[in-house]
Amino acid sequence: MSKSSDSTAPTRMPVYSMGIGGPNFMEATEHPAYAQLAAIGQEITAKVRPKAVVVFSAHWQESPNVIGINVVEKTDLIYDFNGFPRHYYEYDYPNRGSPEVAEKVIAKLEATGIKVRKVKRGLDHGVWAGFMVAFDPKKNPLNVPIVQVSLFDSEDTDQHYRIGQALESLRDEGILIVGAGMAVHNLRDYRRAGASAQVMPYVLTFDESLKDAATSHPDERRAEMSALMERGDAREAHPTLDHILPMYVAAGAAGSDVGEQLWTFPEKSLSWAQYRFGSVPLS
Questions:
Q1: Would you give the distance in Å from CA 49 to the centre of its chain?
Q2: Buried b / exposed e along 115-131 (16+ C-beta atoms within 10 A)
Q3: Per-residue pLDDT reduced to its tens digit, 249-280
Q4: Distance between CA 216 and CA 43 in Å, rounded?
Q5: If 0-12 CB within 10 Å is exposed, 13-18 middle and 19+ buried, where does residue 39 land?
Q6: Buried b / exposed e across 178-199, counting CB within 10 Å, b at 16+?
Q7: Cβ 157 vs Cβ 248: under 8 Å
Q8: Which of 5, 9, 60, 94 is least surrounded, with the fewest CB atoms within 10 Å of its CB?
């Protein structure tokens, strides 16, 4: 039996919000975030030991009022990026879905009035590129089903918080919920920066404000997270909200558990902050 699916897994999973980079991050082994993401992956396989993973990526927004979910076991990876060397399109990340877990997700969402579309869709790079680091197939294989669920094609943060709330109880069934995005994500300014290593001021201020909101008292977290995007630096930190929305899903799924910033690294116009909601069992 794989260590990830051990029958001694705790009945309540934590929730993670992972800062996951682009395809080139898979080869950036000296980047400070690489070792941090790998360490989180080790924590999940060795200590959390989920039975399955439900993941939300910044790179799948289905429609304004309907979210999509992959309901089949075997699909191909999606190479949803352009302009990279040929070998990036030859990467493989072994994975399988789970129709059974997908049906659990659908039931939870539909019970709260959220409309769901069943689709056959492989993992996009917003999942597999980061999981290649966190759950290296050779060094730290995950060995459990991965079910990807879309975001709404909207910028309604509370709408996404409610997705997480609807799925919170999956954590009591050994199912790990992961939001895969970035705490700060402004590629326009990143490209403009060129060789400059200067960190943009809004990265520092928004990163700190996100930490305050995500780690606030669970009774106050929803309001704090909602107010976050009203800040003056919010649209600098996120010209579009796709990379912060997975964090809202994760925060919503946290329920009464407190959030913790595990690590952060401001870089130019990005932040690689990693979060966990809830506790990890002692070894």
A1: 17
A2: ebeebebbbbbbbbbbb
A3: 999 999 999 999 999 999 999 999 999 999 99
A4: 24
A5: middle
A6: bbbbbbbbbeebeeebeeeeeb
A7: yes
A8: 94
Q: For residue range 101-154, what is the model confidence (pLDDT) as tens digits?
A: 999 999 999 999 999 999 999 999 999 999 999 999 999 999 999 999 999 999
Alpha carbons 260 and 38: distance in angstroms, whole number: 18
Overall pTM surpassing 0.90 (yes/no): yes
- Residue 57 CA to residue 39 CA, distance in Å, equals 20
Contact 193, 268 (CB under 8 A): yes
Q: Tokens representing 60?
A: 């799948």
> Rounded to whole angstroms, how far apart are CA atoms 170 and 176?
8
CB 12 within 8 A of CB 267: no
Q: If 0-12 CB within 10 Å is exposed, 13-18 middle and 19+ buried, where does residue 268 land?
A: buried
pLDDT tens-digit series, residues 165-175: 999 999 999 99
Pairing relationship of beta strands 15-19 and 146-151 according to DSSP bridges:
unpaired
Q: How far, in Å, CA of 85 to CA of 59, rounded?
A: 20
Distance CA 4, CA 84 (A): 33
Pairing of strands 175-181, 274-277: unpaired
